[in-house]
Write a structure and sequence with these properties.
With 203 residues, the protein is mainly beta. Strands 1, 2, 3, 4, 5, 6, 7, 8, 9, 10, 11 and 12 form a 12-stranded antiparallel sheet that branches. The protein has 1 helix and 12 strands. It has a single domain, classed as lipopolysaccharide transport protein A fold.
């Protein structure tokens, strides 16, 4: 009975955390470029996003250092994203590859959410953001280590996958992937292999 109660509590915590992220990222967003330094044009680098590798194909790009974005939503939450450098495709300017990324979601009357990753692909037109490689998320006592976090505005969908570890105080959740549908509020917590199960471990 106690185990079932704890499992239910963990799922609720994950659901609430993803919902907070959704409210902060996707409600009436209008990203404003706040600061750009040291732009370099026509360098050989990366362009179009390859959906299979979650990376960008080689071509000409504009290189930017110290890129910052800032936005607000209708609820008064603030979203800040910084990258030490960025690559803007000359063929597809709506996609920006961010490098060494740190994001902060300042929630109104709540604790902030912090997201760090080695890279992110941000779409300026539809506001989809894909964080990848060494993704680290912190919200109060909830800490998540993962390889990928996709925040998809158009499809109202959040996907956290290739998860390494999820901690909440003295509880550890073992799962490979968590999906959350913003419209239906459905949450799915899964392992990649059918013979493996989602686990809750007490430290």
């Amino acid at each position: 009975m106690r185990k079932s109660y704890i499992q239910f509590l963990i799922i609720i915590i994950c659901l609430v955390s993803v919902y907070i992220v959704y409210n902060s990222f996707f409600i009436s967003k209008s990203f404003v470029e706040e600061e750009i330094k040291d732009s370099i044009s026509n360098e050989k680098g990366m362009t179009n996003l390859d959906p299979k590798t979650n990376s960008i194909k080689k071509n000409e790009v504009n290189l930017i250092s110290n890129l910052k974005y800032k936005s607000f939503d209708t609820m008064g939450n603030e979203y800040l994203i910084n990258s030490k450098s960025a690559e803007v495709s000359s063929n597809n300017e709506e996609l920006i590859k961010l490098i060494d990324v740190s994001a902060k979601i300042i929630l109104k009357n709540k604790s902030p959410i912090y997201i760090n990753s080695d890279y992110a692909i941000h779409n300026k037109n539809v506001f989809d953001t894909k964080f990848y490689e060494n993704v680290y998320i912190v919200h109060d006592d909830l800490k998540i280590f993962s390889e990928n976090l996709d925040l998809m505005y158009n499809s109202n969908f959040v996907s956290l996958y290739n998860i390494k570890e999820i901690y909440n105080k003295n509880i550890k959740l073992k799962a490979d992937k968590i999906d959350f549908d913003m419209l239906t509020k459905d949450v799915s917590i899964n392992m990649y292999k059918n013979d493996q199960k989602v686990k809750i471990i007490y430290k």
